[in-house]
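Hey, I was hoping to borrow your eyes for a little while. A protein chain has come my way and I'm curious about its shape. Take your time with it, there's no hurry, and the full record follows here:
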Amino acid sequence: MASPMFTIIGGDGKEYGPVKLQQVKNWIADGRANLDTKAKRIGDEEWKRLGDFPEINTLAPAEVSTAEPAIPDPSDGKGPLKVDPKTYADDLIERAIPLDIAGCFQRGWDLLKANFWPMVGAFAAIFLIMMLFSVVPIISLLTGLLLTGVFYGGLFGYYLKLARGESAELSDIFNGFSVAFVPLMLASMVSQVLTGVGVLLLILPGIYLAVAYLFVYILIMDKKLEFWAAMEVSRRVITAQWWRLLGLALIGVLLALLGAVALIIGMFVTIPIYMVALIYAYEDLCNPPRS
């Protein structure tokens, strides 16, 4: 009989999972969850205490931590969160509504107007740093392959905080180096290699993957997923509405080109608008409300 899968609500109020029963037991033993942690078995609609599940309330007292539940976070030394990508993505796909492309850009524009200099400054800082790395060819190649995800993961994380109305500091744009360096680096390398191979294979597979991986860096920064899980969840969730995400990406490319025409300086405005529009698309598809 297959092991049941659970989604839990962490100490930060976010959902983590689906994960197998043994992983939930490990979190309880490690103090990352307790019997009062809210959880839901995959296939059920009702949220319960972990202690209300027969599979869990039979744990020996020594196996149960009395500590407050913590956020599953790679920064605690336990590594990125491991989930079943198909189960995780299927739950999101089922709850998501059709993406409103115009609405994403409208919200992006509204956020830029409210945080113009912080958002433009953050993008300019990352852009200029990566331009400096590009001066030396070999360093440019390594940086582009290995550190693109680390730099842009931090930038996406900063914009995500602003979009959620959370406190954000400019230094947060470098959080990719401290919060999820290895997953972002691996995602950067593997996604670019797979997309490049896809381009060589009649181009269309490369275009598909380039769009399908748009949420990878955000998922790693926000959900603390391991790199392959983030790539698969992004691919599956976006595939369900691939044409809409393609449309959003094409508008982003058009905005970037218009910004480049405007003496290059315009890119420092148009690209942040696209990036935040992508973040709002991520929020709609990867954090859909529960009915």
